[in-house]
Prior knowledge:
Blueprint: H1 2-6, H2 15-25, E1 34-38, E2 44-46, H3 47-63, E3 66-67, H4 68-77, H5 89-98, E4 102-103, E5 108-110, H6 119-128, E6 133-134, H7 135-144, E7 159-163, E8 166-169
Amino acid sequence: xxxxxxRDSTPDHDHLGRVRIATTLGLTRPELAxxxxxxxxxxxxxxxxxxxxxxxxRLLTAVGPLTLPTIAxxxxxxxxxxxxxxxxxxxxxxAMRAAGCTTDDLDRCHPPAGALPAxxxxxxxxxxxxxxxxxxxxxxxxLAAGYREKxxxxxxxxxxxxxPGSYRLVGDGDVPGSAGQLGQVSG
Length: 187
């Protein structure tokens, strides 16, 4: 059973669940096996890096252009990545390039042309754009977007904490022009 719990996860496994089980049992955390997705440098993109790229893409399609440090902070806040090894800025940038993201002359990352935000994310952006909100207001927005009540105690990558009990949409006010681009797809 120990060998089974510690062996590397394949792309079809619930890697995060396996990590949690191993951690609970005090075992060595399983590694994530690489899948064959090409990188700019000719390497391969692991499924962990693909997950990071998907989260970054979700952020960019929802709120518009963001800087790499803002994206990295949002990905780190995401509950999905808390049990994984941190991703370097270089790995994050490579994963985003592999997903088709581009960078402009102001070092802001853009989603691929034609990428559309998810319906839930559109609701969040519409209700939260330009607002400082309390945790209760943030949770009300998440519930209105279709998240379940159990999400109440989790972090969401589209929100950032600005102070004790104070939150705002990621990117609001970070980069000149980004708040005015909320919800629009770059292309």
